[in-house]
UniProtKB/TrEMBL annotation:
This is Nuclear hormone receptor FTZ-F1. GO terms for cellular component: RNA polymerase II transcription regulator complex. InterPro entries: NR5-like (IPR016355), Znf_hrmn_rcpt (IPR001628), Znf_NHR/GATA (IPR013088). It is found in: Nucleus. Keywords: DNA-binding, Metal-binding, Nucleus, Receptor, Transcription, Transcription regulation, Zinc, Zinc-finger. SUPFAM superfamilies: Glucocorticoid receptor-like (DNA-binding domain). It comes from Papilio machaon. It comes from the Eukaryota.
DNA sequence: TTAGCCTTGATG
DNA sequence: CATCAAGGCTAA
């Protein structure tokens, strides 16, 4: 009983930390605790001392929830939202891989048409790329062609994955909710408090749907929710922090 | 190879 | 019927 009520209460009360546009001091201290997480480049540390360079990143295990599960999120170059003026927010409308305009949901999240096609070709043809640099090339709209390796790595980092297998574990609602957590983290990282408030509203909406679907679901989903309970106060930078 | 466009199949 | 996303197609 306590646990269930905890899930419910956390949902609403936790989101309550966005009463006003400030969104700053609201709920309490924990809002800034997210800084403890280090999103920058964390995703790329996946291969600290594997092969020196040019190792294959096309491991199908990344595409499915086997073991480690979700890949980490990535801080996109699109985060050039540094311009306070662009209240258009909507990091969600920018491809998290290259920053181009999204054309819809592709392989789990909103991406542009080119990255969708790139991901498709890579997976279908089992392409294996190599990076001649340090496997940390910046990917944006103009440079996305330069290094397919880092581009695909980024695709994996932001959570692109094959349909079917990916959602059957936790469900589409939780998956999208996790995406929003990452977006929220991004906004907080850029001190875009206006967007933080907006994203919290979106997040709450997603959480309600996810909770509704998770309520009558398997224990697996509930375990995820226990993770999310913590994430509400400390928005994670990567999926791995939610689904270990 | 890329990326825009098209067709297909699923869903409501 | 409309919408959406996966996959196919093909001109640069
Ligand atoms: Zn893209
Ligand atoms: Zn690279």
């Amino acid at each position: 009983m306590d646990q269930q009520s905890g899930l419910m209460s956390l949902n609403m009360s936790a989101f309550d930390l966005s009463p006003g546009p400030d969104g700053s001091g609201s709920g309490g201290g924990p809002s800034s605790a997210s800084q403890q997480y280090v999103p920058q480049g964390a995703a790329y540390q996946c291969a600290p001392d594997q092969q020196p360079f040019g190792y294959a990143n096309l491991d199908t295990s990344y595409l499915f929830p086997t073991g480690t599960g979700e890949p980490g999120a990535y801080l996109p170059a699109a985060a050039t939202v540094c311009d306070q003026t662009d209240t258009k927010d909507v990091i969600e409308e920018l491809c998290p891989v290259c920053g181009d305009k999204v054309s819809g949901y592709h392989y789990g999240l909103l991406t542009c048409e080119s990255c969708k096609g790139f991901f498709k070709r890579t997976v279908q043809n089992k392409k294996v790329y190599t990076c001649v640099a340090e496997r940390a090339c910046h990917i944006d709209k103009t440079q996305r062609k330069r290094c397919p390796f880092c581009r695909f790595q980024k695709c994996l980092d932001v959570g692109m994955k094959l349909e079917g297998e990916s959602y059957k574990l936790y469900g589409i609602y939780i998956h999208k909710l996790l995406c929003r957590f990452v977006y929220l983290h991004r906004y907080q990282n850029h001190n875009s408090f206006g967007n933080v408030g907006r994203m919290q509203a979106r997040l709450q909406s997603a959480a309600e749907m996810a909770l509704h679907h998770a309520a009558a679901a398997s224990a697996e989903k509930l375990k995820v929710w226990l993770r999310i309970e913590t994430a509400v106060c400390n928005p994670p930078a990567t999926f791995q922090q939610l689904i270990p």
